[in-house]
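Pilot study result, target chain (511 residues):
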Amino acid sequence: MIRASSGNIQGPLLTSSVLSDWLAQRLARDGASPIYRQLHHLLQQAILLHTLTPGSKLPSSRLLADELAIARNTVTNVYEQLALEGYVRTLRGSGTYVVDNTADEIVGRDERAGLATASSAAAEHRGSLLSARGQRLISTAGASNRQWGAFMPGVPDVTTFPARVWSRLQNRYWRRPQAELMTYSTGGGYGPLRQTLADYLRTARSVRCAPEQIIITTGIHQSVDLAVRLLADVGDVVWTEDPCYWGMRSVLQSSGLQMRPIPVDAEGLNPSAADLAEPPKLILVTPSHQYPLGMVMSLARRRMLLEYARRTKSWIIEDDYDSEFRYASRPLASLQGLDTAGQVIYVGSFGKILYPGLRIGYLVVPEALAGKFAIALAELYREGQGVQQAVLADFIEQGHFTSHIRRMRNAYGMRRQLLMDAIANRLGEPLPVLGDEAGLHLVARLPDTANDQLIMREALAAGIATRALSTYFSDPAQAPRGLLLGYACVPDQEIGPSFGTLANVIERYLG
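Predicted structure:
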């Protein structure tokens, strides 16, 4: 029960007026919060903190309402809500009583010492609450809080997206909503989009596929995650390029796979004899434009890799993340187009071509796997975005997609040149440039004595976003130094001044 003392309630309740006085002191009458909500919260907390002890009888609704000068219905509704939540129970003809549902009664009073010990141990080891995989994921996370501006890699210019065209196409579906587009997706995605995408990939990327082989996802991360779940088990070995995209490293590590970094050279992935002697379950590659260095896998290396996968039954996951944007030559044919054994899973996304927030990507899987991937997609992720997929299908079918690619290829090519000119004019030879013929970024190499991670942090403090090249390698301490500079989302007139700001930071570390 309850006693009044200097604003708190303690001990057993002697009179209803004690509780009424305590509540009256705390009820705000300024209208900022409903009286019902305040009264419910005060009584709830009094019960949880045992200031209203188990078995205590509450005043009648009429009496408490009179003493608080509030409507009786308010008190009645609060008592009913507390009863529904298990805090009190009402006995007909007797009154409303606080229920005894303390933790001691639930677990048994003889377990109190054990619970206290466990609670103390938990407090001492809060840093270990995550699993080993979870701790590794968080400790190596690469996602940045900043996703726009100079010189954020991998981000397109979303301000040039043809929003009016998209809105017009989208409005057609909202004027006459179709139930099948507004519920969960099944069958691997919207049929017309899969058909249109198959036609585009065959023409533009030399991908050999039927619409049924295409699985629509939310992007490359989900595509790879789905492939890993269906094709590999925990502990299986996966080859990754060294360096590689941090996002893929995170997906693979959190799936419990053993990652084996394979170095790249001028011809792409370059496994050693020792590597080849132990076939992996999966091989993740970016053959058309290695991420982040930019080299193209040679035909000889492609044929070797395909033959090796055929012989060892390894699966190749081909990440074709931004192959549309080449500036010195036509886009290159896909690795999947050379595959005759059905060992390549081809993944792509519309995020870098249109805008990242669209969250639509795709896989092209061998025919024998298509149905299984479609089932797993629905089972694991409960896919949707039917309206967006329908709009995208129309956008591609009506030619807006290819027109947008042409415009952006020209714009990005100009920005790439402006950035290269800014580098040469300000720093010249000290900063050789890699991967400048394709994509949305280039790599400015730094002397191996420079701390690219420190430069990255200082540049961010100066308002410039970039990424340290060393962080993309399996062993950053032994990795070459450099900076990834994204130019796609930087207006032409801002490239020179923005690089000037970055150069001020870089020059302090060039000696």
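One observation from the pilot: The first strand starts at residue 3 and ends at 5. A full batch analysis is planned for the follow-on phase.
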